[in-house]
Amino acid sequence: MILRRQTRKVYVGHVPIGGDSPIAVQSMTNTDTRDVEKTVAQIEQLQDAGCEIVRVAVLDQDAAIAIRSIREKITIPLVADIHFDHRLAVSAMDNGAQGIRINPGNLGGPEKLANVVAAAKSHKVPIRVGVNSGSIEKDLLKEFGYPTADHPDALIESAMRNVRLLETQGFEDIKVSIKSSDTLTAINGYRKLSKLTDYPLHLGVTEAGGLIAGTVKSSVALGILLYEGIGDTFRISLTRDPVEEIRVCFELLRSLKIRERGPELISCPTCGRTQIDLFSIAEEVERYVQKMKTPIKVAVMGCVVNGPGEAKEADIGLAGGNGVGIIFKKGVLYKKVKEDELLDAFLAELKIIEGLEK
């Protein structure tokens, strides 16, 4: 059983982070924030996939102003990602951002930071102190060296320094992240940080890579941390459609039995007995179940001889070969159809389970 680290609770819009709250799943749009229509469309896709908090890049005042129009069209909390310009942080909050991600130390000094904190207090907006390996102050790099798995101290001290900057302004509605592109540095950095503060932690591996490399690196680092009870919200960062990030997030949570959303899909790796185009069928089934919310186990198997037995724990599954397809439930034959009708028949059964058809 996973014992969660006890943290303070903050709210991003209506979503609680930390304390006894569920671990929240986040992503970030890759659209031009100033293009309201495209940004809203992507946020809706992310929300359909299960995203609970979404972040947008705020590059200039036009992007900050666009937040107001975006907020009017979405229902999940919106976080503004700010670098260097404190005016953008204030403007983003004035226009409805429900959270901001900043590095307080690079906003231009105490007076400018005070303006940001004043706006955050006024709008009741939490601040995520976001530090990564490429944004560490020069004096800390000189003192501690570049962060590594054995010595992540520069990351940690940078984060805590920036937390203290906010605390001196009387602000404690804080989340913290210390991201590295190195898996072991991320693991050990968050482990150490979790012992130094009770602020909720946002987990992530930055610049993780594409679908395969990014999924593996992020899942290893975040899986270990989440299993140890560390982490209150997280993002899987992929060089990919951000919807894919949400899919990976929930599969990671499911694998640790932390949270479940929608069906679990199991499929055989195929072998010489496979006589149907299982790759295409599995891809179509996977695409469909991503939209489902019913927490069932779905199996896609390539062999009618062994498939039902190997996947007998599945609530529903399919298998095919030699022109015949079968649909089974809990390992027991439910329906036999022609091979070329198997996919459509199976999707129809899934729609019945989801309550979309009778």
| Low-confidence residue ranges | none
- Tally of helical segments: 12
What CATH first level of the largest domain would be assigned?
A: Alpha Beta
Strand count, sense and closure of the main sheet? 8 strands, parallel
- Describe the global form: elongated
> Would you list the SSEs in sequence order as H and E?
EEEHEHEHEHEHHEHEHEHEHEHEEEH
In spatial order, strands of the major sheet run 8-7-6-5-4-3-10-9
**Residue-averaged pLDDT:** 91
DSSP, total strands:
15
- Bin the strand percentage: 15-25%
Q: Helicity level, as a percent range?
A: 25-40%
Distance between the termini: 39 Å
CATH architecture of the largest domain: Alpha-Beta Barrel
Radius of gyration: 23 Å
Q: Which fold does the CATH topology of the largest domain refer to?
A: TIM Barrel
Number of domains: 2
The computed structural class is alpha/beta
CATH superfamily of the largest domain: Dihydropteroate synthase-like
